[in-house]
Every structure is written in C-alpha cells, then in structure tokens.
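Quiz preparation item.
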C-alpha cells in the first residue's frame, strides 16, 4: 500500500453543502463545517500536504483556508486534473501518493490523477462508481473530516495525529 502524502479537496459540494449565498451587495458567502477544519488540522499534524481546488473564485475560501499555504489554494480552475498534476510536480508527490475528495462531474478528471478517490455521500453517481471510498456524510457536513480520518486510519496514523493535535492545543492554554 502506497502512503498518501497529498490530499486535495474540491470546495463547493465537498467542503460546503454546495449552495451559493449572496449578500445584499452580491458578495458571496459560504458555510464551512468546523468539523472539517479540525480534520484539516489533524491531517497537517500527521504530515499530509493539503490543497483545495475550485472552479470558482471566492474571498470566503481564501479566508477559511488560512491553514494552507496560499499556493495550495487553487481557485478559478477549469481543469482540475492539470491543477493536481502541477501540485504533484511542485510538491514532489506521485499520483499513487495523492488522494482527491470530490462530489460532481467536474471532479472526474481529478480522479484520474489520484491514487485514492473519495466521493462524498451526496456525490454524482459517476464519481461514486469510481470511488475507493464513499463518505457517509454529505458535503459541508463533515465529509472532509471523515475522508481525512479514513486515510489516517488506513495509514495507521490516526492515534499519532490526535496526539500531536492535543499536544499542540494543550500547550496553547
């Protein structure tokens, strides 16, 4: 079994429920799950590289993804397969060492550049058919954390990640 080093996520429908909320001035707002945020922290503590890839541009995504290096937040991407290939090259990670989490048809090309393919519970049937794992939770409801925890357990790294997280959090008191 090849060890996963990079986990890339779609945003809309995967880390959010997929709705687009606009305020009175037309500014886009998104709702993210804090459960997924803690999952990101666990993944980082376990040594994973994380990235998000979206076809949309959003200030809300940039604000929420403050834990990630800005160059790992790829927005306004038309071809997610190419975006993952660029991430893999820059981070020196192979296809087999990459996991991708998505929900819809525009994520199918990204599945072709991932050794592990994860679809959220409410994903399009085409993604579910290609997925190595389908989360029990829907996008925006903790599916990101579930995917991360599944990968951590698969690599026998869950306990270490939780220990690292708690050690850091307890030292900040």
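Solution:
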């Amino acid at each position: 079994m090849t060890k996963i080093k990079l986990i890339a996520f779609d945003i809309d429908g995967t880390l959010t429920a997929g709705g687009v909320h606009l305020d009175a001035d037309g500014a886009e707002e998104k709702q993210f799950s804090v459960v997924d945020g803690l999952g990101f922290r666990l993944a980082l503590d376990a040594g994973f590289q994380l990235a998000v890839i979206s076809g949309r541009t959003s200030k809300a995504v940039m604000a929420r993804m403050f834990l990630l290096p800005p160059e790992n937040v790829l927005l306004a991407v038309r071809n997610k397969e190419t975006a993952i290939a660029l991430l893999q090259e820059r981070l020196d990670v192979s296809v087999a060492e990459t996991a991708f989490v998505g929900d819809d048809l525009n994520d199918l090309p990204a599945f072709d550049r991932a050794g592990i393919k994860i679809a959220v519970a409410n994903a399009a049937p085409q993604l579910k058919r290609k997925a190595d794992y389908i989360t029990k939770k829907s996008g925006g409801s903790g599916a990101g954390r579930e995917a991360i925890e599944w990968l951590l357990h698969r690599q026998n790294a869950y306990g270490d990640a939780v220990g690292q997280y708690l050690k850091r959090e307890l030292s900040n008191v």
